[in-house]
Amino acid sequence: MSDKKIAVEGISKKFGTLPVVGGVSFDVSDGEFVAIVGPSGCGKSTLLNIIAGFERPDAGAIRINGVERIGPSPNGIMISQQGSVFPWLTVHENLMFGLSGTRHADKEALADRYIDMVGLKGFEDSYPHELSGGMLKRVEIARALVVKPEILYMDEPFSALDALMSLRMQTELRRILDEERHTVILITHDVEEAIYLADRIMVLSARPTVIQTTFEVDLPHPRKLSSPEAQRVRVAILRELGLEVAG
């Protein structure tokens, strides 16, 4: 990886007297995909919200391209498990809304391109209630990517989907990222999802969370999760999370 895109410098956060983030530092390179896993309630989403600018840390700093972040910025887009598709707009209108205020020359053509990219050609005039859960997630990803964000912040984006649809969406996301360069930070409870998608996986400790260990995932895409190399990483991560499993 080349240039440093994100610098997380000694982030700490309390809610009242409850310490949640206990001092976290790491860098993310331009174009790198970093996944973060950890015990339930350890502060993963809080950490991501701080990095994305939606919450302020009690101590430490976030730097994007060397500049300290003090709030949300248009160079990053959040995709969450709750979803953010507007139910009163069609698929095409949802993407055009995302493009409003941007300086792209042909917004109609750009919206059509991303609708096609996520496999929704033919559903441009459909409303969210007419789509399946997986299709809705495709709309959300298309709406995030159409504005050409430098950074994607993803907070368990596929957790509401069934296992098969989640795997399909992971494959779709990986295909898009192979076409277009984005820096990604993913929060997930799914270790196999992290291995399938990420260049690097950080395991967080229990609250107040710190980085317990880091795994480099130096495997070519598309990845076969049943491969011995992927399984070794899976077993090692699960052990860090306190789970002893068969290899």
Our Rg estimate from Cα atoms comes to: 18 Å
Number of helical elements: 7
Measured by DSSP, the beta-strand proportion falls in 25-35%
Helix/strand order, N-terminal first: EEEHEEEHHHEHEHEEH
The proportion of residues forming helix, as a percent range, comes to: 25-40%
Tell me the distance between the termini: 30 Å
Mean pLDDT metric: 90
Structural class: alpha/beta
Spatially, the strands of the biggest sheet line up as: 6-7-8-3-9-10
Sheet having the most strands: 6 strands, mixed
Q: Care to count the β-strands? A: 10
Parts with pLDDT < 50 across at least 5 consecutive residues? none
Instruction: Describe the global form.
Output: globular
Summed up, what is this model?
With 247 residues, the chain is of the alpha/beta class. It has seven helices and ten strands.
Describe what you observe in this structure:
The protein is 32% helix and 26% strand. A hairpin with a 2-residue loop joins strand 4 (59-64) and strand 5 (67-68). 34% of the residues are buried. The protein has seven helices and ten strands. Helix 3 crosses helix 4 (133-145), helix 4 runs parallel beside helix 5 (163-179) and helix 6 packs across helix 7. The strands form two sheets. The protein has a six-stranded mixed sheet, with helices on both faces. A four-stranded antiparallel sheet has the order 2-1-4-5, covered by helices on one side. It has 247 residues and is α/β, with parallel strands linked by helices. It has helices at residues 44-52, 91-99, 107-117, 133-145, 163-179, 191-197, 228-240; strands spanning 4-15, 18-29, 33-37, 59-64, 67-68, 76-80, 151-155, 183-187, 200-204, 211-216. The radius of gyration is 18 Å and the shape is globular.
